[in-house]
C-alpha cells in the first residue's frame, strides 16, 4: 500500500495528543507537589492525599456519589436491558419511535435535562436530595445501557433461542439459559458505563441535588470556584484514574465477550 | 411480541415521567407568569420571551452563537488532520489512536476545564515557563479572558470532532484514491475532490455535536471566563438556581433548543444541497 500521510500530519497528530493529555498530566503531577500555592515544583509529597481522606466533606461526598452511582447503575441497567430486549420484538414505526425516545437523553443538552427535572420536582413538592439525583442519573444512564445491549443483541441471531423453544424451554428458561449468557458482556459493560457516567456527572446533578446530597463533582466545582487547592488536584487525580479504569474494563469485557461468542456458537 | 408486552411499559413510563413530561412543563412555564416571590402563576404571559429581546440578552445570545461557531471551526481545523492521520495509519496505530482519543471522553469535563486554571493562572504553568525562558518579564493575564474560554471549549470538544470524521474516513473506499491518482490527480486534488466530499457526513456530525455541546456548557465560562464572558446557558442557569425567574429561564431554554434544532436542520440541508450540486456537476 502506498504511504498516504504527509510527515507534517504525523507531527500534528502527536502534538495534538500531547495537547490533549498535557493538562490532565499537569493535574496529576501537581497533586504530588508540596507547594501549596505557587506553580513551582517544591518536592514530592503525599500530604494532599492524606488530608483528602481526613476531610469529612470529601468522605461525605464520596459516600453520596457511591450510593447514587450504585443505585442508578442497578436500576438503569435493568431498564436499559429491558428496553433493548423489548425493542428487538418491535417493527416499523413503533420501533423507530421508541428508539428515538431512548436516544433522547443522549441528545438533549444536560442543562435542559437538569433544569426540566428541577422544575418538575419542585412542582411536585419533592425535596431535592439523593433520590432526585438518582432519578436523574437513571434517566440518562439507561440510554447508554440500551445502546450497548442493543449492539450486542443485533450481533446474535435468534436461532439459538428458537432452538431452545423448539426443544420445549419456557420463555423464562430460554431467557435465563440462552439469551442472558449471550448478552451478559453487553449488560456488564453497559453497567460499568452507567456507573462511570453517574460518578462523573456534574451538570444534571447540579440542578437536582440538595444541600444534603453533594456529590464529588459538585464538591469539586464548589472548591474550584473558591480557588485552587492541592487537595482538589489529588481528588481529581483519583477520579481520573477510577473513570479510566472502569471504562477500559468495560471495553475489555465487551471485546472478550465478542471472542467468546465466536467460540461458543460454533460447537452448537 | 411476547417480550415487549411486559418489558416495554416500565421504560416507557420512566422516560415519559422523567424526560418528556418535565420538558413539556418547561415549555408550559415559558408562557406563564410569576408572582412577587418568584413562584410560577397559572396566567398566560409572554413576558419571558419579551425579556429575551432586551438588547442585553440579545447581545449575550449573539456572543453565544459566535463562541459556539468559533469553537466548532477551530475544532474542525485541528481535528481533521488528526482524524485523517489515524484513519490512514497502520491497524495498530489506529487502535491506539482511537483509545487515546476516547479516554478524555470519560474524564470529567469539570476536571478537564479545571486543568486549564492550573495552566493559565498568573502563577500557573504557562506563565512560569514563559518567565523562566525569559520571554516575558511579568506574568500575563490569561485566565478569565475570552481566549481562555475558547481554549477550554476547544479542548473539551476535540474528541467530539475527531471521532465522527475518523469513522467517515475509515469507511471510505480507499480504491477511489488509487483511481484518482491513476487518472493523474495530484495528492492535493485527490484529497479535495475525493476524500473531503467523502468525509462530509463525519464533518457534519462532528460540527453539530461540538456546536450543540458548546452552547450548553456554562461551566467553562463559569470557571475560565471573567465577568464579561457570559453565555446564554449561564443566564439560564442563574434564572433557575439564583434569580428564580422561571418563566424567563424556561423561555430562554425553549429558544436555545429551538435555535439548535433549526441550525442542525439548515446545516443538514446545506450539506445535502451541496452534495446534489457536486453530483450534477460530475454528471
UniProtKB/TrEMBL annotation, chain A:
Coiled-coil blocks: none
Topology term for the membrane: Multi-pass membrane protein
Domain of life: Bacteria
Biological process per Gene Ontology, one example term: transmembrane transport
Subcellular location: Cell membrane
Keywords for this protein: Cell membrane, Membrane, Transmembrane, Transmembrane helix, Transport
Residue span, ABC transmembrane type-1 domain: 62-250
Record-linked InterPro entries: Bact_Polyamine_Transport, MetI-like, MetI-like_sf
One term under GO cellular component: plasma membrane
Pfam families in the cross-refs: BPD_transp_1 (PF00528)
Gene3D superfamilies reported in the protein's UniProt record: MetI-like (1.10.3720.10)
Transmembrane segments: 12-32, 66-88, 100-121, 133-153, 174-196, 202-222, 234-254
PANTHER family xref list: PUTRESCINE TRANSPORT SYSTEM PERMEASE PROTEIN POTI
Family: Belongs to the binding-protein-dependent transport system permease family. CysTW subfamily.
Protein name: ABC transporter permease subunit
Originating species: Paenibacillus campinasensis
Automatic annotation (TrEMBL), chain B:
Transmembrane segments: 12-32, 60-87, 93-111, 148-169, 208-226, 246-267
Localization per Swiss-Prot or TrEMBL: Cell membrane
Pfam families per record: BPD_transp_1 (PF00528)
Family annotation (InterPro entries): MetI-like (IPR000515), MetI-like_sf (IPR035906)
Start and end residues of each ABC transmembrane type-1 domain: 61-267
Entry keywords, A to Z: Cell membrane, Membrane, Transmembrane, Transmembrane helix, Transport
Entry similarity comment: Belongs to the binding-protein-dependent transport system permease family. CysTW subfamily.
Protein name: ABC transporter permease
Species, as recorded: Paenibacillus campinasensis
